[in-house]
Amino acid sequence: MRIAIIIPAFNVAPFLGEAIRSALAQTHTNWSLMVVDDGSTDATATVAASFQDKRIHLIQQDNAGVSAARNRGIRHAEATAPDAFLFLDGDDWLAPNALERLADAFDSAPWAVAACGRCARVTADGTTHLSPAPHDGCLLERLLIRNLFANGGHLLIRRQAVHAAGDFRSDLSYGEDWEYWTRLALLGEFVSVRSRTPVLFVRERAGSAMLTKAMDPAAYRPALDAIHRNPAIATRLGGSRLPHLRRRADAEMAWAVGRELIRHGQQRAGQRWLGRSIAGAPSIRRMMLIGLSWLRIGPFRPYRTAA
Asked: Do 48 and 107 fall within a single domain?
């Protein structure tokens, strides 16, 4: 299986080298890597150009956003005739056998449109927090409620599915990958890697969209609206089902906003959003988790980020 790795890169010079070296360390060696420098003002392009491996390609463009960079990478990668795509963020890195394990999962499920593995979030002091086991099967309804994936770095997507899903939406600046996963889920099932070992390491760093926008409910709404207004989804599920799923999605968004506010030290505001979430979609489990929010432990642990 030939795999195209797409890295959209904007001002990630301090981290990009580690992302590229993680590709070079893969046990599965049949890959190509497209680094799309999205108008960086730091040494991102210099870092990418310093790697002398014919499988690594540097593409430069004026700043147009992460979706445009991924779309550019897809088009450039077509010349290498890949069987599958993986979208790696420029500040994250892959486990050495990530591609091998994801490709093996595909081999076991030829009907699947995407294979997914666990990820681990890594704090500035090197502490890792393992994600829950990834979901598989038909994920459409789950994805209409919340984003199940940290980002594209722990998803391997078949080339045919990438073509059928179309481009990432460049009009979305946050949650654009989430909207894309829903279109993939319309096409077929996902298969997961059966292992507790992560395939992806996600760096928690100051300035990342995950940290800067996750506290703002307004940042979520364009992607939520795009997802729930997709006519193909309404056709698949029926119009009567969507309002219920949207209410649950709004409650999930409120929980995420509350959690992130608390993790950033804004306790009172965070508690209000958690309460709004439980009012919108009552859950015994989340009512029990409220206690952890006051202690700022578990999912509410404070961020310790790299600069």
From this structure: yes
- Quick one: 9 and 93 in the same domain? yes
243 and 152 inside one domain: no
Domain that holds residue 290: 212-300
pLDDT in the model for residue 238 = 85
Instruction: Report the alpha-carbon distance of residue 242 to residue 304 in Å, rounded.
Output: 38
pLDDT recorded at residue 114: 98
Of 205, 221, 241, the residue that ends a domain is 205
pLDDT averaged per 10 residues, the chain (length 307): 98 98 98 98 98 97 98 97 98 98 96 98 91 94 97 98 98 96 98 96 78 88 96 91 94 95 93 94 88 88 72
Q: For residue 7, what are its two tokens? A: 């890295």
The region that residue 15 occupies, defined by phi over 0 for left and psi between -120 and 50 for alpha, beta otherwise, is alpha
Rounded CA separation 142/259 (Å)? 20
Structure tokens given for 139 = 């994920």
Per-residue pLDDT at 307 = 54
Q: Are residues 275 and 163 part of one domain? A: no
Structure tokens at 6: 């797409």
Of 51, 53, 43, which is closest to residue 12 (Cα–Cα)?
43
Tokens of 191: 């298969």
Cα angle 215, 243, 239 (rounded to 5 degrees) comes to 135
Q: What is the DSSP string of 263-296?
A: HTT-HHHHHHHHHHHHHHS--HHHHHHHHHHHHT
Instruction: Describe the strand order of the beta sheet including 93-94 as a list of residue ranges.
Output: 93-94, 200-203, 119-122, 128-130
Instruction: Answer yes or no: are the C-beta atoms of 81 and 58 closer than 8 Å.
Output: no
Residue 44 has a pLDDT of 98
pLDDT at 291: 87
Per the domain annotation, does 291 fall within a domain?
Answer: yes
